[in-house]
Amino acid sequence: MEFKQFIFYFFSAVLVFAAAMVITIRNPVKAALFLVLAFFSAAGLWILLQAEFLAIILVLVYVGAVMVLFLFVVMMLDINLVRLREGFGEYLPIGGLVAVLLVIEMAIILSSGQFGLENMPEPPAYTADYSNTRELGRLLYTFYVYPFEIAAIILLVAIVAAITLTMRRRKDTKYQDPNKQIRVDRKDRVRMVKMRSEKKV
Amino acid sequence: MTFEMPNILPAVPEIFVFSMACVILIVDLFLSERRRIVSYLLAQATLIGAAILTFKLMVSEPVFTFSNMFVADRLADVLKLAIYAVTASVFVYSRDYLRTRGMYRGEYFVLGLFGVVGMMIIVSAGHFLTLYLGLELLALSLYAMVAFQRDSSQATEAAMKYFVLGAMASGMLLYGMSILYGVTGNLEIAAVRRALAGMDADNVMLIFGLVFVIVGIAFKLGAVPFHMWVPDVYHGAPTSVTLYIGTAPKLAAFALVIRLLIGGLENLAASWQDILVILAVLSMGVGNVIAIAQDNIKRMLAYSSISHMGFFLLGILSATPNGYSSAMFYVLIYAVMSLGSFGMIILLSRSGFEAERLEDFKGLNQRSPWYALLMLILMFSMAGVPPTVGFYAKLLVIQAVIGVGMVPLAIVAVLFAVIGAYYYLRIIKLMYFDEAEDKTPIVAGGDVRLLMGVNVMLLLAIMPWIGVIIDLCSQAIKQLS
Lengths: 201, 481
Fold this sequence. Notes:
The complex is a heterodimer. Chain A is mainly alpha-helical. Chain A is built from nine helices and no strands. Chain A has helices spanning 3-24, 28-48, 52-76, 81-84, 88-110, 132-141, 145-166, 178-183, 186-189. Chain A starts with a helix and ends in a 12-residue tail after the last helix. Chain B has one domain (11-478). Chain B contains 20 helices and two strands. The two termini of chain B are 34 Å apart. In chain B, helix 11 packs antiparallel against helix 14 (321-348). Chain B has helices spanning 12-29, 37-56, 74-100, 106-123, 128-146, 153-184, 189-197, 204-221, 229-236, 239-245, 248-264, 269-292, 297-317, 321-348, 364-367, 369-383, 389-403, 407-433, 446-461, 466-478, and strands at residues 63-65, 70-72. At the A-B interface, helix 5 and helix 7 of A face helix 1, helix 4, helix 5, helix 6 and helix 8 of B.
């Protein structure tokens, strides 16, 4: 076995193990941490495919930002595990049946030979100065510029929707008005009062 | 590497609607509640402006741009014009409803316009990626609109169900698309078509991908067995939003079916035909039979929409150009009928009262013979009774099915149409032969009254020009292949 193959199998095994743990472990914090492990192994696989930009983004964005936020949410919410598990047994037979069917179908698909090595030629080796960050950027801003813009619109709609659904102006909430704060003058806040000094009794 | 500027001219209507939506978003910030009408008028002006632009830019031959991801053809133009008209009417109907319920905020119009942009993107998509992104843009706007009534737990629940099921459907669609990409090596619709031409249609991978794509489409259409969200969402959402969901997005869903199944995967017709037969029969059956048991008119119309989607699928599954154009005709007519019916519910509702139970239609004839007549025409058209255009729409799809020799399917369709007639006629019975429980006169603004009259009378008055519309539909379809 080549060293490359060894790395591939190593990361794949860790990835499958971590993914299985995410959905089976009881403690949500541990599940989130296993998800982090799964992301790391996936990033390793991507490095192996010479997609270093995607690998770094996966670690930076998902592990660094998304999962940390997620952990915060999990820790702050008091999740009642017993209630989450309610109805699990009730839906198990039908859910299990669907899952088994899907696995069988996928096994048929994967063994149909479409994904065999002869159908997937090995990509050409790139020179050392090849930057796939630049290549990605080039494709994204030229060939895929239209979907790229639509994705931007979708994000805008998400912001508008989130603000529409959550922002409320309540009368009893106190607001800061930066405009007023800046324009404030000494005489608005401090009043000099002339008074006689008090005598000690 | 040189960058060639893509030809943005064909996409100008999309850019215009999107820019105007952003302008309204900002203008609305500076408006007080009393001057909110400015947002409304701007939204209407946007739709009119977009219609003029689309009309001016109309092309006789398909034009591709943005590396073939955008296509402007007759189909896109016709559907876009219909979407503008339907959305503008939705805005007219819902203005009073929103005002009396404290939902009269600019975001309703802004999200509505963003939804229109999504629909336009779907309608003129030339690539799986744009199709999917357009769908997400539309869906995201709809989720937010359903939850618009923040204090109503029913609306929130409906939005939650819609969101979860919609996300799942998008996932299915995306998975199917990725499998198709794996097999054909392409995401561009025309290229997928070319790649499939040289392939064995019985390829197990292709069918696997196709099934997932169809499941995604069926979710979006609300066809049985993927219909569970339809009644809950139609019922739970504020009526003005139900009006929006039940009309214009159906046109976009039609475009989704046409672009995916016919534009890209027509070579697999033998495989998807069987699947669609099952979906169509189940939709017509479940939709029409369960609608009988409903006593809430919004739920009833939701089941009716499920059954109409079944009829619409009849046209598609015949897999002939004739069938496609009759399906297009059906969905255009359905949008007009559905607009009128939900508009009528809004018209009868007033502050603090939702006319959504069947009993609320009791004795409508005594309260207002004119509105009772309009509702009568709407219900006749929905049921498919001859002098109305609804009959013609049903006739065309059934003819298309008979044309390919599926006579048993046609008989089943007619039988379910007869069963469906029961609950439409029940409303007519309630309006004309029952005593009115509440005698409050119906108040509505002049614009709403006028539009409602035009909307409903269109279903009768269009009959002499029906040939023109059918020609338009078949021309649009002809350009596809």
